[in-house]
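Fold it.
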Amino acid sequence: MKRLRLTSYLFVPLLWLAFALMVASALQKSSTVDEQSHLFRGAAYLKANATHFLLGHPIGNSALAALPLLTEPDLQLPTEIPAWETGNWSVAGDYFLWRIGNNAQRIIFLGRLPMIFCTLILGCFIFRWGRQLGNIATGLIAATLILFDPNILAHGRLISSDVTLTLFWAVAVYGFWRWSQHGKRSAIVLAGFGLGMASLMKYNAAFLLPTLAILAGYEWWKRRTRAPLHALTGTVAVGGLVIWGVNRFALTPLPGGAFWDDLFWQMQYFGRNTGGYLLGNYNPDGSLLYFPIAFLIKTPIPTLLLIGTAILFTVNPSSRVARPPSVVYLLIPAMIFCLTAFTAGFNIGIRHLLPLYPYLYLALALAISRLRSTQWRIATTSMVAGTVLVAVWIFPNYLAYFNQLIGGPENGWRYLADSNVDWGQELPALAQWQRTHDEKTLYLSYFGTAHADAYGIEFEPIPAPIITPDPPPTERQAHDPRHPRPGYYAISINNLIGFPMQDGERDMYAAFREMEPIAKVGNAIFVYEVAATGAPVSVAFAGTRPALLPEAVYAQWGTNDVRVRWFENPDEMLVVPAGNAAYIVSSQPVGEILRESVDLRVELSAENSHIYAVTATPFNQQTTPKGETVTFLASLQNDALGHDPLTAWRVEERLDGMIKHFVHATDPQTGEILAQADDVMIDAFSTLEAGDLYLRLSKLSLDADTFAVTTGLYDAATGIRLADPILLYTTETMPTEE
């Protein structure tokens, strides 16, 4: 009874504190890179028995995360899109979370709850194991260290399989240890359950088999009986039954069904090194030093001091610290896991080291809980309490935590990348920064799969890895890494250092690395302010983009303030930007008819760059208004044009969405359309500013002798015309040859 009260007074409040920290921080973080795919895949499996979304992971963790979603009566699955049929989990997951009406932020939080509870169970489990290995102090120390480790808090509240693998890996070893202590069959069932569940979390749980085999060999060496072999066989049998059952007792291609499909897919896709970013450098083959350095700089200093203290007293021959025989059940799993993790070349996050933590912290707790010196007990108790204080201090930014050995979280990006720092989690904090600073628009380079606009961020996308949703098409990318436009830039750390990008793009944001950010949002997104270096120039681009401009052009303009418009096919279309310094840049020469209609001066004429300066703005007269957004200015007809009209328009205000431009030749008597030239989705209008001119040469194929030609604009989404059609000419008013 006394022990129970002591446990309640000390451990239960710690458990509640860990729960509060994880829940509160989970509510403040956006969906990370892998979460939408895991959650969608689990929901598809539970609700539709879909097993064809091969993610390279077993279905167990995804299904576990999706269990709370079964309480959502209106949850929709994107079964009608092609990605569902083809098994494209990336596209289907994006639709599931963001595009078909599901409440993305709610279901992400629901999916995180099972992960949080598994983390708490891990803490309770380690407390129990530690108490059985030593005493209540051993259990409390081990549970405190694991529950308040920033890396456990970071990944224990996300929909990923790292902490669930850690839990069930430890359960399997614990069950086998309990069998070694008491020989009960229930312990074998527990070990088998842990083995099966760990295998359903990640495929690297396969290394549990040699771990358990070595432990069985160790027991055989002590006992000289077949009992350990029978225990191992029973453990594997129960584990296989768990795998088969979770996969609904499927029999093809092997018993376990989709479990093997995913494994075969992973062996093909992931059977290679991913490389990693370490100490400011990218290594495509990974490094043996990656995990030791990551552990050293991402573990709280109080914990490192405890490790040093434990080593000091353990290796000291005069130490009174006892070494219980059961420690082999901590050392063997730890050694095998380190051997596989360090040599795998999969250097993308300390999260892949988490299954080591139960054994490390249990061994650490065993060592320091047996200290006899009062002074050392006070010192180690203070260190354990210090880990809790660190966890509270850095709330809620656990993912990007680094200790003070490198100057704290603000400097972590100089040493590590990917899920160690930036996994797409800081969109809510960025939205709050934008609201606080009243910045209406950001140039955003985001590393992640979440939709920034779903969190209320107003932004213009600039280059980012392919996983970013709705990236701008390359041919219409206004960002030039040599001369960033003036404004505010929010750049994810991974994009800043260029880790996930292709070789030729890793220096996309090199200029920003040398700048001091004005804000570090969760230490995962840096915000920069870029000032103008000269007066603005307005430029309309066709078939090219700012990053392809010759450096001499920027030198001539003398500014980085390039205000961009886009158009296509300069033989039939022309955009003339408003402004004192206006230019047209095209990958091919502007058509002769269009060029003659506007006073353009050739600045540069080369194979891939044709630059024209606008020396005068034509069509200043206003003729027929078209609503409040676009004004029709003029229509040109001459012998060279024949039946093909050239119309000119002026934008009165920036337009949202797509506008269609049409020209119809109709029979004056019946109204029948004899010929038409409808532009398909003229989105040039959506990039134009007030005062810009838009010229369109429409091609008509006419055989009739009598007709009338009209033109107009309408909203492509709604089909609503901006105003009544304008009569351009009839056969009586057409110019004739003399």
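The first strand starts at residue 276 and ends at 278.
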